[in-house]
TrEMBL record:
This is VOC family protein. It comes from the Bacteria. It comes from Actinokineospora fastidiosa. Pfam families: 3-dmu-9_3-mt. InterPro entries: Glyas_Bleomycin-R_OHBP_Dase, PhnB-like. Residues 6-130 form the PhnB-like domain. PANTHER family: PROTEIN YJDN (PTHR33990:SF1), PROTEIN YJDN-RELATED (PTHR33990).
Amino acid sequence: MASRLNPYISFDGDARQAVEFYESVFGGTLTLNTFGEYGADDPAQADKVMHATLETASGFTLMASDTPPGMAHNPGDNIAISLSGDDADELRGYWTRLSEGGAVQMPLEKQMWGDEFGACVDRFGITWMVNISSPQG
């Protein structure tokens, strides 16, 4: 298998809701394991997500977990996820669903470099950038 790079997002107790939301946006197959499945002693942590992976038909991989007790959680200030390509309908659909319930930082519109670009923060505090390449020709 070739090397790959994919985002891994830490959440503060709502990882399950977040990855299920992302599954509703992108489709794909979600696998999820809880701390309880791996013998967590704290009953309050048993149903929290130890590791989740979403693999989509478009080749996206998104990983996530709940931050375990004792570890720092600093949402939103250290990650942005970029979606780019030339399938305008697909990317606009992602943009619409990701921005629902969140905040648009920059509207998805034509930019000086010729592409459509927008940035939003979803309802879980994650920043998303969408770039739709303009046709070459």
